């Protein structure tokens, strides 16, 4: 048999543990086991009706061809208006690029920026794809740890200590996956100052900006516009994960470089999905408000429930995840996640790949009924193991 060699690059790439757990839970479900999945990384709501209508209209109007690499002008103008209205940021359409999900925008950015050995600072616990993408692009991810005791807030002094002559960029993600942390103005201003002082780029992933509870979302681009690439997308805000629309806005030279990469890889984001995104971004405030209230109710229930079970869980300010301390179940979070899946039939994601030892991530982007069911099952598991 012909044995071909895969590249060193791809062999060092770690598969997403979130996808791995979701896959294992689906496998069990297919085998007839009733698993409650708390592993999802996407809203459980349907895409709003007016967004679907815009897509049907686009198909009927024949908007089914290649689009400009950086996205249709109508969508880039809509994105500029959104930045102005919601974030107090002024961008021209030339400073905006549309990609196949925020994931591709991030991927293009790291490839546009990094040479071998260039360092990127990433607050931890982090979304698993950041360090993987940085390493895939030849860079070196440098973690700066944050702590559950203060809601995983970022200490700018710790960021400053991590800066070396090889540092090129700092990644921020507020509201954060997996911690739900939301950075306040003082933190953002301090990080912006560091970026300006050391000539660094800030890559800020604001995908969860609308899923926020007791805090206000602030864009760091307000404090260092020339040093910031803002990433956002349609997936989380408008329940459009499958449509694959993400976007980035920032310095024009960087946007051009990202367009060059995209032009030689995927060309453009899906044309119909771009028209749907125009409708979503222009007018979804009622949907956003309703989703937020449902998420808030679920968050309050799951946090109090997990704490009652003796699994200490801080109250997150944003996104739709909680980080539960599972040391009562097993010292290793990998083992704890396995036990919770096999014995309580609840799928959770071990914190290992998020750099969150001793904790697992539970997503509450699922029905209230499922949350009750998961808490009930985990409660039964704990009283069994406590005996
Ligand atoms: C923090 C964060 N950024 C980006 C993404 C990617 O979103 P998209 O569907 O736009 O690629 C996700 C999805 O899970 C995420 O959690």
UniProtKB/TrEMBL annotation:
The keyword Repeat does not apply. Its EC number is 2.6.1.-. Residues 34-377 form the Aminotransferase class I/classII large domain. InterPro entries: Aminotransferase_I/II_large (IPR004839), AspAT/PAT-like (IPR050596), NHTrfase_class1_PyrdxlP-BS (IPR004838), PyrdxlP-dep_Trfase (IPR015424), PyrdxlP-dep_Trfase_major (IPR015421), PyrdxlP-dep_Trfase_small (IPR015422). It catalyses: L-arogenate + oxaloacetate = prephenate + L-aspartate. Keywords: Aminotransferase, Pyridoxal phosphate, Transferase. It comes from the Bacteria. Its cofactor is pyridoxal 5'-phosphate. The keyword Transferase applies. GO terms for biological process: amino acid metabolic process. One of its GO terms (molecular function) is aspartate-prephenate aminotransferase activity. Pfam families: Aminotran_1_2. PANTHER family: ASPARTATE AMINOTRANSFERASE (PTHR46383:SF1). Belongs to the class-I pyridoxal-phosphate-dependent aminotransferase family. Catalyzes the reversible conversion of aspartate and 2-oxoglutarate to glutamate and oxaloacetate. Can also transaminate prephenate in the presence of aspartate. This is Aminotransferase. It comes from Deinococcus peraridilitoris (strain DSM 19664 / LMG 22246 / CIP 109416 / KR-200).
